From TrEMBL:
This is Coronin. Keywords: Actin-binding, Coiled coil, Repeat, WD repeat. It holds the Pfam family WD40_4. The keyword Ribosomal protein does not apply. Belongs to the WD repeat coronin family.
Amino acid sequence: MPRRFVRESKFRHVFGETYKRDLCYENLNITKNVWDGGRYCDVNSKFVAVVLDSNSGSTFVVLPIEKTGRIDSNISKFEGHKGKVLDLQFNPFNANVLASAGEDGRIKIWNCPDGGITENLSETLCDLIGHRKKVGIIQWHPSADNVLASAGFDYDIIVWDVEKASPVRVISCHSDVINSMCWNFDGSFLATSSKDKKVRVIDPRKTEVEEQIVHEFNAHKGSKPVRVHFVDEKRVVTIGTQRSAAREILLWNLDNVEEPITQHELDDGSGNLLTVYDAFLNILYVAAKGDCTIKYFEISKETPYVHYLSQYQSTTPQRGFGVLPKRAVKVNKCEVFRFYKMDSKNLIEPISMVVPRKSDTFQQDIYPKVPGDTSAFEGG
């Protein structure tokens, strides 16, 4: 039997396909804020939300997803924050509800009417007030409706009951700025990375700090912000830099966090990392602010665990991304992921990640079951 030199994978030939210009979103004065722990663009099956540079970055627009082409500069905006908007995210169980967080220390919950707003809107469904400094990251709970986690520059994480506009838990186990935060698949744990170079896995159901920290370990030795994602119940992946500033991917087994399972060197780029993990297909997408490429890797349970697949190359640098929920991709096109790239020319450009297949029928092997738009239970 001949020896195989190339690892077999159904995703080895995934490629990025850029949408035509008339299907992009032009003439958007996209924010130039330097904070990169949150997202300045978010997408769902109905809308595209984008933070703008107008009014010192305190406003954003929510466009019907089909409203492509050149956007009127006088389009109605969502306003109300008294400082820059640092993160926004649609509720996964209600496409018309959006959360935003800002330098004013407030989290605002908005209603986005079908078809978009026709005049500037400052009235919210509710405000979540509890952080003592600006709020840099928000994350809706993946299985419970009306539950939101926020990370502030006061080093606290607050888990909110949004319906009651009140905190359920305040987690004070960090000693520096939180750069990255994510829930695991069912929302039983949070993972964070911090400016103190530590990665923490947190049980938000516990009340005592000593019980809340399930795992705590030093990850990357470089000074750049670290990104962290849950891979499965036992593993997390971190993306950061070495002391030499070279970028790297580290995979960790939570049963033993003394040393990573594997290390994969990336490159020597200088931009802060932008990462997205597709937990359903086990594909990690790695980019950086100011770069023109998106590299993607498959994470497996077999050595060497992290497998380079390919990269998408464009001609314009990226500022950040929005990501379409998995349940909204075009299955007849074998699309497995879709970015909404904010570029340096005030353009939002959809990029479709496609598995090349000859048939346009449903390909069950590349579409595992994913969460729907109904929550498993209500928060509160």
